[in-house]
Task: inverse folding
């Protein structure tokens, strides 16, 4: 989805501001203003005396829900995780929720998302500490997603789990028994996950941390949920650390719909986008929605302000993480990870695209230097010295 598509819809449908949830409008407004004069700009000029080329680079909104923003943050985050990977197999596990819970989740997002994370982590820790499987504390990185391919509301958590862990004495061990390419038995995980989630949900309802619709028969819903199968997907292990990083780069900072999937926004505000129909053999299809319905679906996936959708636990718990990983690498007789290096943005662009963004597009010889930063009110313009090249 290009920002221009969102801008067009919001500009042609001003009534949407009154229809959307109060917490969602700031994010939509940020997408509307992304890379427009409303957010100000950087002014660049060629440093060659006989070239008068000047260009404005409009500021991005930097909102985490914007499909055009976040690529630099994503790369930095992935590089940081790359320096924390341990030379072992990593497994991919996905925890989903029954659709019957969608209404409760929509009305209690923070509380229900927290329960989802906690139940998923509890399940993985329970099996990891079982001597029959690992008998140690594994490393877990989990990411919350709330969407399906057609923008439907489908909350689930993707987890990356290390195939090894540390015992209480700090010794590194790897999984003893791996059947069918999955780290832990799927059906057993489903039962533990369902039991833990329902325990936490019942407790939250009793303490009024999760509010239910007045018309809901919770006793009947609870009975139905206990009778359902709670789907847990356990996928084949990654081929190596490079595949783990590639996966992290694709999914950690992903938004509900990427810009390349939007095919058309017509004069009637109808949006056509591509999606995979998993119910029909993952065939690629096109879907057309009215602008109002498209924005309604997109709005469902705007997270509560400040909510952290990427979490880590076990070996990757923030407190003491570097020390733990260094000790594991020493046990495995592996060289420590290199220290972090700050790479300027224009060099990252050269590495990624092969093109120098600071090369003057007019004369092809000069360098584009920063002349001025113009910020929207209440900030004033600031003149900066040209950056070192």
Result:
């Amino acid at each position: 989805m290009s920002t221009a598509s969102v801008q067009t819809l919001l500009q042609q449908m001003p009534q949407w501001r009154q229809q959307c949830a109060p917490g969602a409008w700031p994010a939509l407004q940020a997408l509307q203003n992304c890379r427009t004069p409303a957010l100000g700009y950087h002014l660049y000029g060629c440093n060659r005396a006989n070239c008068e080329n000047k260009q404005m680079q409009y500021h991005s909104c930097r909102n985490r829900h914007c499909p055009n923003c976040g690529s630099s943050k994503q790369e930095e985050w992935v590089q940081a995780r790359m320096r924390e990977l341990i030379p072992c197999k990593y497994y991919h596990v996905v925890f989903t929720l029954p659709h019957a819970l969608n209404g409760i989740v929509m009305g209690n997002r923070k509380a229900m998302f927290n329960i989802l994370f906690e139940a998923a982590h509890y399940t993985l820790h329970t099996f990891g500490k079982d001597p029959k499987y690992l008998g140690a504390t594994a490393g877990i990185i989990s990411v919350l997603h709330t969407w399906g391919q057609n923008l439907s509301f489908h909350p689930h958590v993707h987890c990356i789990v290390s195939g090894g862990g540390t015992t209480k004495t700090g010794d590194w061990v790897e999984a003893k028994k791996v059947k069918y390419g999955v780290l832990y038995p799927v059906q057993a995980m489903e039962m533990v996950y369902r039991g833990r989630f329902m325990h936490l949900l019942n407790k939250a309802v009793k303490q009024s941390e999760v509010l239910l619709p007045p018309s809901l028969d919770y006793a009947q819903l609870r009975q139905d949920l206990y009778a359902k199968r709670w789907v847990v997907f356990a996928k084949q292990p990654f081929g190596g650390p490079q595949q783990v990083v590639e996966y992290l780069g694709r999914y950690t900072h992903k938004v509900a719909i990427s810009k390349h999937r939007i095919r058309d926004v017509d004069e009637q505000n109808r949006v056509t986008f591509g999606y995979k129909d998993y119910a029909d053999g993952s065939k690629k299809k096109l879907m057309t929605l009215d602008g109002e319905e498209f924005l309604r679906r997109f709005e469902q996936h705007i997270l509560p302000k400040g909510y952290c959708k990427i979490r880590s636990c076990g070996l990757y718990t923030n407190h003491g993480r570097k020390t733990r990983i260094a000790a594991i690498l020493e046990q495995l007789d592996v060289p420590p990870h290199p220290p972090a290096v700050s790479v300027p943005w224009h060099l990252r662009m050269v590495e990624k695209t092969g093109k120098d963004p600071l090369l003057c597009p007019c004369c092809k010889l000069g360098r584009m230097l920063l002349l001025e930063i113009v910020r929207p009110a209440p900030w004033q313009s600031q003149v900066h010295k040209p950056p070192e090249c």
Q: What stands out?
A: The CA atoms of residues 77 and 249 lie 8 Å apart. The longest strand covers residues 153-166. Residues 379-389 have pLDDT under 50 and may be disordered.
